[in-house]
Amino acid sequence: MRIAALVSAVALLVGGQSASWTRTPVPIAKGDIAAVATLGDRDAWALGYRLVSTTNLQAVALRWDGRSWAQESTLPAGTYPQAIAVAAPNDIWEAGSGTSHWNGRTWTKHALEGQMVPEALAAVGGRTWVVGMRTPSSIKDAVPDVQTWDGTRWRRQPLPPLGKGTLSSIVALSPTNVWAAGHTTGGATQATLVVHWDGRTWRKVDSPGVVGAHTWVSGLAANNANEVWAVGGTVKGTAERPFAMRWDGSTWTATPTPDVADGRLRAVARAGADLWAVGGKGSVSVALRWDAATRSWATAPAPDISVRGLASGGSGLWAVGLAKQGDLVPAITRYQ
Fold this sequence. Notes:
This is Galactose oxidase, central domain. Keywords: Signal. By secondary structure, the protein is mainly beta. The protein has one helix at residues 3-11; strands at 22-24, 31-40, 43-53, 56-64, 69-74, 83-88, 91-96, 98-102, 107-110, 116-124, 127-134, 143-149, 154-156, 165-174, 177-184, 191-197, 202-204, 214-224, 227-236, 239-247, 252-254, 265-271, 274-281, 284-291, 296-299, 305-313, 316-323, 330-335.
Protein backbone atom coordinates (compact mmCIF):
# COMPACT_ATOMS: atom_id res chain seq x y z
CA MET A 1 0.00 0.00 0.00
CA ARG A 2 1.31 3.47 -0.85
CA ILE A 3 2.28 5.62 2.15
CA ALA A 4 -0.24 8.34 1.18
CA ALA A 5 -3.04 5.78 0.95
CA LEU A 6 -2.06 4.29 4.32
CA VAL A 7 -2.07 7.72 5.97
CA SER A 8 -5.48 8.42 4.45
CA ALA A 9 -6.88 5.13 5.75
CA VAL A 10 -5.53 5.74 9.25
CA ALA A 11 -6.99 9.26 9.26
CA LEU A 12 -10.45 7.83 8.61
CA LEU A 13 -10.15 5.67 11.73
CA VAL A 14 -8.92 8.32 14.17
CA GLY A 15 -10.51 7.96 17.59
CA GLY A 16 -11.71 4.46 16.85
CA GLN A 17 -14.47 5.66 14.53
CA SER A 18 -15.08 3.53 11.46
CA ALA A 19 -15.09 5.08 8.01
CA SER A 20 -18.83 5.00 7.44
CA TRP A 21 -21.95 7.09 7.18
CA THR A 22 -24.67 6.72 9.82
CA ARG A 23 -28.33 7.14 8.96
CA THR A 24 -30.36 9.29 11.37
CA PRO A 25 -34.14 8.90 11.81
CA VAL A 26 -36.23 11.33 9.76
CA PRO A 27 -39.68 12.48 10.97
CA ILE A 28 -41.14 12.03 7.47
CA ALA A 29 -42.37 8.62 6.34
CA LYS A 30 -42.67 9.44 2.64
CA GLY A 31 -41.35 12.39 0.69
CA ASP A 32 -37.95 13.90 -0.08
CA ILE A 33 -35.12 15.88 1.53
CA ALA A 34 -33.57 18.29 -0.96
CA ALA A 35 -31.23 20.63 0.93
CA VAL A 36 -29.23 20.90 4.14
CA ALA A 37 -27.18 23.60 5.89
CA THR A 38 -25.55 23.91 9.30
CA LEU A 39 -24.59 26.43 11.95
CA GLY A 40 -22.44 23.87 13.78
CA ASP A 41 -22.39 20.30 15.06
CA ARG A 42 -25.53 20.83 17.13
CA ASP A 43 -27.55 23.03 14.81
CA ALA A 44 -28.45 21.85 11.31
CA TRP A 45 -31.41 22.53 9.03
CA ALA A 46 -32.89 20.40 6.25
CA LEU A 47 -35.68 21.22 3.81
CA GLY A 48 -37.93 18.88 1.89
CA TYR A 49 -41.50 17.76 1.63
CA ARG A 50 -43.92 15.22 3.05
CA LEU A 51 -46.18 13.29 0.70
CA VAL A 52 -49.63 13.81 2.27
CA SER A 53 -51.52 12.10 -0.56
CA THR A 54 -50.92 11.15 -4.18
CA THR A 55 -51.71 14.75 -5.18
CA ASN A 56 -50.76 16.76 -2.09
CA LEU A 57 -47.30 17.73 -0.83
CA GLN A 58 -46.40 19.58 2.35
CA ALA A 59 -43.08 21.43 2.40
CA VAL A 60 -41.34 21.21 5.77
CA ALA A 61 -38.24 22.44 7.58
CA LEU A 62 -36.41 20.03 9.90
CA ARG A 63 -33.93 20.98 12.60
CA TRP A 64 -31.14 18.96 14.24
CA ASP A 65 -30.55 19.85 17.91
CA GLY A 66 -27.47 17.69 18.43
CA ARG A 67 -29.49 14.55 19.19
CA SER A 68 -32.32 14.16 16.68
CA TRP A 69 -34.20 15.68 13.77
CA ALA A 70 -37.60 17.23 14.43
CA GLN A 71 -39.97 19.26 12.30
CA GLU A 72 -39.42 22.94 13.01
CA SER A 73 -42.08 24.39 10.72
CA THR A 74 -44.24 24.04 7.65
CA LEU A 75 -43.40 26.14 4.60
CA PRO A 76 -46.01 28.12 2.63
CA ALA A 77 -48.35 26.22 0.33
CA GLY A 78 -46.98 25.75 -3.17
CA THR A 79 -43.38 25.76 -1.93
CA TYR A 80 -40.97 23.19 -3.36
CA PRO A 81 -37.61 23.84 -1.62
CA GLN A 82 -34.46 22.95 -3.53
CA ALA A 83 -31.82 25.15 -1.87
CA ILE A 84 -31.18 26.66 1.56
CA ALA A 85 -29.00 29.38 3.11
CA VAL A 86 -28.83 29.70 6.90
CA ALA A 87 -27.36 32.90 8.33
CA ALA A 88 -28.90 32.46 11.78
CA PRO A 89 -31.75 30.48 13.38
CA ASN A 90 -34.03 33.45 12.63
CA ASP A 91 -32.60 34.25 9.19
CA ILE A 92 -33.07 31.41 6.70
CA TRP A 93 -33.81 31.51 2.98
CA GLU A 94 -35.13 28.73 0.79
CA ALA A 95 -35.44 28.66 -2.99
CA GLY A 96 -37.34 26.38 -5.32
CA SER A 97 -40.63 27.67 -6.67
CA GLY A 98 -39.62 31.24 -5.90
CA THR A 99 -38.18 31.97 -2.46
CA SER A 100 -39.30 32.13 1.17
CA HIS A 101 -37.70 33.61 4.30
CA TRP A 102 -37.87 32.35 7.90
CA ASN A 103 -37.62 35.00 10.63
CA GLY A 104 -37.72 32.56 13.54
CA ARG A 105 -41.52 32.55 13.70
CA THR A 106 -43.00 32.41 10.21
CA TRP A 107 -42.10 31.81 6.57
CA THR A 108 -42.86 34.61 4.09
CA LYS A 109 -42.88 34.06 0.33
CA HIS A 110 -41.00 36.51 -1.88
CA ALA A 111 -41.24 36.57 -5.66
CA LEU A 112 -38.10 36.69 -7.76
CA GLU A 113 -37.60 39.36 -10.39
CA GLY A 114 -38.77 38.13 -13.79
CA GLN A 115 -38.90 34.53 -14.96
CA MET A 116 -36.13 32.93 -12.93
CA VAL A 117 -35.55 29.27 -12.03
CA PRO A 118 -33.46 29.38 -8.82
CA GLU A 119 -30.73 26.79 -8.25
CA ALA A 120 -28.66 27.86 -5.23
CA LEU A 121 -28.45 30.38 -2.38
CA ALA A 122 -25.70 32.02 -0.33
CA ALA A 123 -25.80 34.43 2.60
CA VAL A 124 -22.98 36.29 4.35
CA GLY A 125 -22.54 39.59 6.17
CA GLY A 126 -26.20 40.54 5.90
CA ARG A 127 -26.29 39.95 2.13
CA THR A 128 -28.14 37.15 0.31
CA TRP A 129 -27.83 35.99 -3.31
CA VAL A 130 -29.78 33.52 -5.41
CA VAL A 131 -28.47 32.11 -8.70
CA GLY A 132 -30.06 30.09 -11.45
CA MET A 133 -31.33 30.78 -14.94
CA ARG A 134 -33.65 33.32 -16.50
CA THR A 135 -36.14 31.92 -18.97
CA PRO A 136 -37.43 34.82 -21.10
CA SER A 137 -39.28 32.52 -23.51
CA SER A 138 -38.42 28.85 -22.87
CA ILE A 139 -35.91 26.64 -21.09
CA LYS A 140 -34.00 26.28 -24.38
CA ASP A 141 -33.23 30.00 -24.32
CA ALA A 142 -32.28 30.15 -20.63
CA VAL A 143 -29.43 32.44 -19.61
CA PRO A 144 -27.54 32.68 -16.29
CA ASP A 145 -29.15 34.87 -13.65
CA VAL A 146 -28.07 36.36 -10.30
CA GLN A 147 -30.36 38.23 -7.93
CA THR A 148 -29.73 39.84 -4.54
CA TRP A 149 -32.10 40.72 -1.70
CA ASP A 150 -32.16 44.46 -1.00
CA GLY A 151 -34.17 44.19 2.22
CA THR A 152 -37.47 44.62 0.45
CA ARG A 153 -37.37 42.60 -2.74
CA TRP A 154 -35.14 40.60 -5.06
CA ARG A 155 -33.24 42.61 -7.67
CA ARG A 156 -31.41 41.21 -10.70
CA GLN A 157 -27.69 42.04 -10.84
CA PRO A 158 -26.06 42.82 -14.20
CA LEU A 159 -23.90 40.05 -15.63
CA PRO A 160 -21.37 40.25 -18.48
CA PRO A 161 -22.37 38.57 -21.77
CA LEU A 162 -22.34 34.83 -20.96
CA GLY A 163 -24.56 33.27 -23.61
CA LYS A 164 -27.02 30.51 -22.85
CA GLY A 165 -26.63 28.42 -19.73
CA THR A 166 -27.21 28.45 -15.98
CA LEU A 167 -25.54 29.11 -12.64
CA SER A 168 -26.16 26.11 -10.39
CA SER A 169 -23.96 26.86 -7.37
CA ILE A 170 -22.73 29.80 -5.29
CA VAL A 171 -20.43 30.37 -2.33
CA ALA A 172 -19.90 33.65 -0.47
CA LEU A 173 -16.75 34.41 1.50
CA SER A 174 -17.80 38.00 2.20
CA PRO A 175 -20.13 40.64 0.74
CA THR A 176 -17.29 41.56 -1.63
CA ASN A 177 -16.05 38.07 -2.51
CA VAL A 178 -18.66 35.75 -4.04
CA TRP A 179 -18.26 32.94 -6.58
CA ALA A 180 -20.99 31.40 -8.74
CA ALA A 181 -20.60 28.57 -11.23
CA GLY A 182 -22.52 26.35 -13.62
CA HIS A 183 -22.23 25.79 -17.37
CA THR A 184 -22.88 27.34 -20.75
CA THR A 185 -24.81 25.60 -23.53
CA GLY A 186 -24.12 27.80 -26.54
CA GLY A 187 -21.28 25.81 -28.13
CA ALA A 188 -20.95 22.29 -29.48
CA THR A 189 -20.52 21.04 -25.92
CA GLN A 190 -21.44 22.26 -22.45
CA ALA A 191 -18.59 24.19 -20.87
CA THR A 192 -17.84 25.20 -17.29
CA LEU A 193 -18.91 28.71 -16.35
CA VAL A 194 -17.52 30.72 -13.43
CA VAL A 195 -18.29 34.31 -12.42
CA HIS A 196 -17.01 36.40 -9.50
CA TRP A 197 -18.49 39.31 -7.54
CA ASP A 198 -16.05 41.85 -6.07
CA GLY A 199 -18.64 44.02 -4.36
CA ARG A 200 -19.26 46.16 -7.44
CA THR A 201 -19.52 43.98 -10.54
CA TRP A 202 -19.75 40.40 -11.71
CA ARG A 203 -17.04 39.30 -14.12
CA LYS A 204 -16.44 36.06 -15.96
CA VAL A 205 -13.33 34.12 -14.91
CA ASP A 206 -11.64 31.60 -17.21
CA SER A 207 -12.19 28.00 -16.11
CA PRO A 208 -10.99 24.65 -17.50
CA GLY A 209 -13.01 21.79 -18.92
CA VAL A 210 -12.45 18.52 -20.77
CA VAL A 211 -11.69 18.78 -24.49
CA GLY A 212 -14.48 17.36 -26.62
CA ALA A 213 -16.69 16.61 -23.63
CA HIS A 214 -19.68 18.20 -21.92
CA THR A 215 -18.42 19.64 -18.62
CA TRP A 216 -20.37 21.36 -15.87
CA VAL A 217 -20.15 22.55 -12.26
CA SER A 218 -22.76 21.57 -9.65
CA GLY A 219 -21.16 22.54 -6.33
CA LEU A 220 -18.83 25.13 -4.80
CA ALA A 221 -16.98 25.42 -1.49
CA ALA A 222 -14.42 27.91 -0.21
CA ASN A 223 -11.83 27.57 2.51
CA ASN A 224 -10.45 31.08 2.01
CA ALA A 225 -9.90 33.61 -0.78
CA ASN A 226 -7.03 31.53 -2.17
CA GLU A 227 -8.73 28.13 -1.96
CA VAL A 228 -12.07 27.73 -3.70
CA TRP A 229 -13.28 24.39 -5.04
CA ALA A 230 -15.76 23.52 -7.79
CA VAL A 231 -17.07 20.04 -8.59
CA GLY A 232 -19.36 18.60 -11.22
CA GLY A 233 -19.14 16.11 -14.04
CA THR A 234 -18.10 15.46 -17.59
CA VAL A 235 -19.58 13.33 -20.37
CA LYS A 236 -17.73 12.19 -23.47
CA GLY A 237 -19.81 9.89 -25.63
CA THR A 238 -21.67 7.83 -23.03
CA ALA A 239 -18.93 7.85 -20.39
CA GLU A 240 -19.80 10.08 -17.44
CA ARG A 241 -17.05 10.88 -14.97
CA PRO A 242 -16.40 13.22 -12.01
CA PHE A 243 -14.87 16.65 -12.56
CA ALA A 244 -13.21 19.01 -10.07
CA MET A 245 -11.16 22.19 -10.18
CA ARG A 246 -9.50 24.58 -7.75
CA TRP A 247 -8.95 28.34 -7.50
CA ASP A 248 -5.56 29.21 -5.99
CA GLY A 249 -6.02 32.96 -5.82
CA SER A 250 -5.13 33.62 -9.44
CA THR A 251 -6.18 30.67 -11.66
CA TRP A 252 -8.71 27.86 -11.87
CA THR A 253 -7.00 24.50 -12.49
CA ALA A 254 -8.56 21.09 -13.04
CA THR A 255 -7.57 18.53 -10.39
CA PRO A 256 -7.18 14.78 -11.13
CA THR A 257 -10.18 12.61 -10.22
CA PRO A 258 -10.57 8.81 -10.23
CA ASP A 259 -12.17 7.24 -13.29
CA VAL A 260 -15.48 6.47 -11.57
CA ALA A 261 -18.38 5.43 -13.80
CA ASP A 262 -21.55 7.48 -13.27
CA GLY A 263 -19.45 9.55 -10.90
CA ARG A 264 -20.95 12.98 -11.43
CA LEU A 265 -20.31 15.13 -8.35
CA ARG A 266 -23.15 17.13 -6.85
CA ALA A 267 -21.62 18.98 -3.91
CA VAL A 268 -18.37 19.65 -2.08
CA ALA A 269 -17.73 20.51 1.58
CA ARG A 270 -14.98 20.55 4.16
CA ALA A 271 -15.10 18.38 7.29
CA GLY A 272 -12.33 19.36 9.67
CA ALA A 273 -9.10 19.21 7.68
CA ASP A 274 -10.62 17.04 4.94
CA LEU A 275 -12.34 18.07 1.74
CA TRP A 276 -15.10 15.81 0.42
CA ALA A 277 -17.13 15.73 -2.80
CA VAL A 278 -20.21 13.54 -3.18
CA GLY A 279 -22.69 12.67 -5.90
CA GLY A 280 -23.58 9.78 -8.14
CA LYS A 281 -26.29 8.87 -10.59
CA GLY A 282 -29.43 6.86 -9.94
CA SER A 283 -28.61 4.09 -7.46
CA VAL A 284 -24.86 4.73 -7.78
CA SER A 285 -23.35 6.85 -4.99
CA VAL A 286 -19.84 8.25 -5.11
CA ALA A 287 -17.64 10.10 -2.65
CA LEU A 288 -14.17 11.52 -3.22
CA ARG A 289 -11.73 12.87 -0.68
CA TRP A 290 -8.93 15.31 -1.51
CA ASP A 291 -5.50 13.83 -0.84
CA ALA A 292 -3.23 16.79 -0.12
CA ALA A 293 -0.13 14.55 -0.23
CA THR A 294 -0.70 13.45 -3.84
CA ARG A 295 -2.70 16.57 -4.81
CA SER A 296 -5.45 14.43 -6.29
CA TRP A 297 -8.86 13.04 -5.42
CA ALA A 298 -9.26 9.49 -4.11
CA THR A 299 -12.39 7.41 -3.64
CA ALA A 300 -13.87 7.46 -0.14
CA PRO A 301 -16.80 5.83 1.69
CA ALA A 302 -19.98 7.05 0.00
CA PRO A 303 -23.34 7.72 1.67
CA ASP A 304 -25.73 4.90 0.81
CA ILE A 305 -28.44 7.25 -0.44
CA SER A 306 -29.28 9.14 -3.61
CA VAL A 307 -27.61 12.41 -2.62
CA ARG A 308 -29.50 15.68 -3.10
CA GLY A 309 -27.53 17.93 -0.74
CA LEU A 310 -24.36 18.08 1.36
CA ALA A 311 -23.23 20.32 4.20
CA SER A 312 -20.33 20.57 6.59
CA GLY A 313 -21.24 20.17 10.24
CA GLY A 314 -18.08 21.29 11.99
CA SER A 315 -15.98 18.13 12.14
CA GLY A 316 -18.43 16.04 10.11
CA LEU A 317 -20.73 16.01 7.11
CA TRP A 318 -24.45 15.77 6.47
CA ALA A 319 -25.81 14.24 3.26
CA VAL A 320 -29.52 14.30 2.45
CA GLY A 321 -31.70 12.82 -0.26
CA LEU A 322 -33.63 9.62 -0.86
CA ALA A 323 -33.06 6.10 0.40
CA LYS A 324 -32.17 3.60 -2.32
CA GLN A 325 -34.66 1.12 -0.91
CA GLY A 326 -38.36 1.86 -0.90
CA ASP A 327 -40.50 4.40 -2.70
CA LEU A 328 -39.82 8.06 -1.86
CA VAL A 329 -38.21 7.36 1.51
CA PRO A 330 -36.41 10.50 2.79
CA ALA A 331 -32.89 9.92 4.10
CA ILE A 332 -30.39 11.90 6.14
CA THR A 333 -26.99 10.44 6.89
CA ARG A 334 -24.00 11.73 8.85
CA TYR A 335 -20.25 11.19 8.58
CA GLN A 336 -18.29 12.13 11.68
